[in-house]
Amino acid sequence: MTEKAAAAIERLMQLHPKGFDLSLDRIRGLLEKLGNPHLKLPPVIHIAGTNGKGSATAFCRALLEAGGFDVHVHTSPHLVHWHERYRLAAPGGGRLVSDDVLADAIERVAAANDGQHITVFEILTAVAFVLFSEHPADVVVMEVGLGGRFDATNVITDPAVSLIMPVSIDHQAYLGDRVELIAAEKAGIIKKDCPVVVG
């Protein structure tokens, strides 16, 4: 990781509040300051669930790219490096965003946030929307971070399709302690008149 990227990540980690409420208000306010990049995206495949989100995301990307589509991908969490969360469309298959491009995007989003109470994931999701709105693609595959209903990715108002993978007990402090409560939170990505696939 470059020094510039490491410094941007370090500043980002200092933003995270000790406690936060589940709400889309913060991300919506930030995105408005950024010119609503989430409204400038190509069709979005929105993926939630407890198990298999990453595999479904990779499978969707592979199928779309094999069909000749240029695909942006947002996943969470990263495995080793922060930039793994963002794959930009490119001929012959996507490429991970570079450290310096990621650092610049984080700095721009953090500057727009102007010190307001916000989570790291909300900043990182705004970064995805900014990057994806500035680079051409045919499709975006976007993975939910936590739950669905109040996840920062759920500002997507008209996905091409919502995909819900298998649901089980996870993040009980935020989503509830019964599978039906957790399923209801994940079903929050379902939008009127948009197709839904349940895995």
Widest sheet: strand order?
4-3-2-5-1-6-7
Structural class: alpha/beta
| Strand content bin | 5-15%
Distance between the termini: 36 Å
Helix content: 25-40%
Shape: globular
Oligomer: single chain
Whole-number tally of structural domains: 1
The beta-strand count equals 7
CATH H level, superfamily name: Mur-like, catalytic domain
As residue ranges, the low-confidence spans are: none
Helices, by number, come to 7
Q: At CATH's second level, what is the architecture?
A: 3-Layer(aba) Sandwich
- Average pLDDT, rounded to a whole number, is 89
The H-and-E topology, N to C, reads as HHEHEEEHHEEHHE
Rg for CA atoms: 16 Å
Largest beta-sheet characterization: 7 strands, mixed
- CATH third-tier fold name: UDP-N-acetylmuramoyl-L-alanine:D-glutamate ligase
What's the CATH C level?
Alpha Beta
Overall description:
The structure is a single chain. This protein is of the alpha/beta class. It has a single domain (about 5-199), classed as UDP-N-acetylmuramoyl-L-alanine:D-glutamate ligase. It contains 7 helices and 7 strands; from the N terminus they run H-H-E-H-E-E-E-H-H-E-E-H-H-E. It has helices at about 5-15, 25-35, 55-65, 100-115, 120-135, 170-175, 180-185; strands spanning about 45-50, 70-75, 85-90, 95, 140-145, 160-165, 195-199. Strands 4-3-2-5-1-6-7 form a 7-stranded mixed sheet, with helices on both faces. Strand 3 (about 85-90) and strand 4 form a beta hairpin. Helix 1 (about 5-15) packs parallel to helix 4. The longest helix is centred in the middle third of the chain and has 15 residues, at about 100-115. The protein starts with a helix and ends with a strand.
